[in-house]
Design brief:
Elements: H1 2-21, H2 31-36, H3 39-50
Length: 51
Amino acid sequence: MYTNNVGKTLTGLVLALFLAGCASYPLGIDKDTWMAMSVEQRLVALEKQAN
């Protein structure tokens, strides 16, 4: 249970840093779609972009 909270916190931190440092969204996703995506979906998109 503790590791799940750490994972969510880390995911949130990664997303916050990514959004603060980049004006566009990964994989050509538009802003409205990105905002509608769950944290998990955003993380998957970021991972795909990195590969």
